[in-house]
Amino acid sequence: MVAQGAWNFYTAKELKPEGWLKRQLKLQAEGLHGNLDRVWRDVKDSAWIGGTAESWERVPYWLDGFIPLAYLLEDEDMIARAKRYIDAILDRQKEDGWLCPCPDQERWQYDTWAVQLVSKVLAVYYQCSGDERALKALYRMLKNYYALLSSGKIHLFGWGKARWFETFIGIGLLYKRCPEDWLVELGRLLREQGQDYNQVVSRWKRPLNQWSLETHIVNLAMMLRAEAASCEVLGLPYTGKADRWDNLLKKYNGTPVELFTGDECLSGLSPIQGTELCAVVEQMYSYEQLYACTGDSKWAELLETVAFNGLPAAISDDMWAHQYDQMSNQISCERFPGKAVFRTNGPDAHLFGLEPHFGCCTANFGQGWPKLALSAFLHQGNRILSGIPIPSRLRTEIGGKKVDISLKTNYPFESRFVYEVDCQEGATFCLQLRVPSYAKEPLLNGRPVHSGTGVSVEIRGKTSVTLECQTQPVLLDRPYGLKSVRCGPLVFSLPIAYQKRKLEFERDGVERKFPYCDYEYIGQSPWNFGFSSRRFEKEERGVTAVPFSSEHPPVVLKAKLKQIDWGFEDGYETVCAKTPNSLRPLSEEVELALYPYGCAKLRMTELPLLAEQDQWQAPNARAARQSQG
């Protein structure tokens, strides 16, 4: 059995973005992700399409986001470009079903993470296009994978062992259409040979300056969906492993925006450690799968926090540049002249650019916004759930009758949701809405409802449903005596003004040339502040053409702060200390605007609350830095 309350996703044919979400997707299409096949050798000259460049994960990673983006935007040029890649991949499928660009004699040493990943791509392409060739190729590829694994000719190792559960996206799609026994047996083989993460949880509690698959942040972000993705095919009960794993990871490695640090392995609770962008989008996808599997609204709220904060924070306004690592307290993004502050990443991992540190995020970050858009509405029988209430339009059928739902909202920047529904005569269904746990005085069509619950509205004919609520800023505790500010799903940061330094060069045969060059963001404004009051005033400024604009944020919080002696991390001039040297005020109180975390590319997110301190010297600040590293 699957988890009670399992929901199904709509396809990109039925569900379309509107409002700010559509503008965000267009920015992505016009930016780096939408042009990788034109500017980046690892995609435009990939071995997957007969070239000589990378032959493993980068083209499948790119297609996993590019395909739904193309179909959500109904962009005929992008759809045709996606099809050219799929055609080239399918044309190269071997007679026995093998699909990856690997010589036959080297299959035994080929890490089959690529098999698992391209199975997701074929599933996504079929769901978007309806092209039966993709389904047939997926069937043949997985049948071959089963034959190789069951015969012992190959075994899971490396990344394939760590990410075995990813194959269930494709297995699940096939099993619903043709429930053949070998698909279940393939799933069991993958589970038996794959990493059992319960055996390594002790390694998540004490971060080390040591690289390992068991603490690799992207593996762990993916791992959260392992049970949700596999339990139905395997016929196993859903036991909530993700709840335990998510809680444990955040207890020892959590950030204010519901991520966990990993640059690129788990890195602890320090606000100057990083989080890899691949992990951001994979954590989003895990929460999407968990919400659909369980119907538990907590996964939706976690998804929103990661999506509306962590995702835009690591990508430039024009979406032509991205970071590998983002930090909660990030005062400058300049290449380190010596040892990086990160535990396992290099000196340029926090720069914005084409492929800072490593190119996996270049290929993979594009799945974030399109898959979030496909989580706007979910369905189960004659029930439709407004999952992530972002501006979108759903055109579908229930019982053969047409249903049209348009959700008009500027959420998360505002908290008013208007559902305009038009049903064909004879159609009836239940529209379920999520009332966030942080909603204050929520009203459904003018009548009070409870926060943190779901409400159902029986729909027939043409009608309008309005849900509105208030959100209030709150200070939340962070480690080391620091605080963060949150209002609804948005976390707020003190923005730091910066200058861009453009870097155009070639390295390892990869050219950086405007607009796909690298940038240093050099901090220019004071950042050494502490909160001097718990009171914050929200000001809505309206959503512009760039929804998460670093220059024109759609909403800000007015905050009272005082400068303090914060200091730099030992050995660095562009990294603030993990904790302040002293809490003694160095200035009069000033009022400054806090920006949404995703809008503040340079920022201070975790600050002390000065009013709560009994003495000015920061308690154990030096000791904390020395003991935690």
Describe this structure as you would to a colleague:
The protein has 629 residues and is α+β, with helices and mostly antiparallel strands. The chain has 18 helices and 27 strands. The strands form 6 sheets. Strands 5, 16, 17, 18, 23, 24, 25, 26 and 27 form a 9-stranded antiparallel beta sheet that branches. Strands 2-8-9-10-15-12-13 form a 7-stranded antiparallel beta sheet. A 5-stranded mixed beta sheet has the order 1-6-7-11-14, with no helix packed on it. Strand 16 (474-477) and strand 17 (482-487) form a beta hairpin. Helix 1 crosses helix 4 (58-73) and helix 6 (113-129) crosses helix 9 (168-177). The longest helix is centred in the first third of the chain and has 20 residues, at 132-151. The relative contact order is 0.11.
Defining key terms:
629 residues; 9-stranded antiparallel beta sheet; 18 helices; 27 strands; 7-stranded antiparallel beta sheet; disordered C terminus; alpha+beta
What's the tally of helices? Answer: 18
Mean pLDDT equals 95
Low-confidence stretches: 613-629
Number of strands: 27
Intertermini distance: 46 Å
Cα radius of gyration in angstroms:
24 Å
The fraction of residues in strands falls at 15-25%
- Return the structural class: alpha+beta
Largest sheet: 9 strands, antiparallel
What oligomeric state is this? Answer: single chain
Shape: globular
* Helix percent band: 25-40%
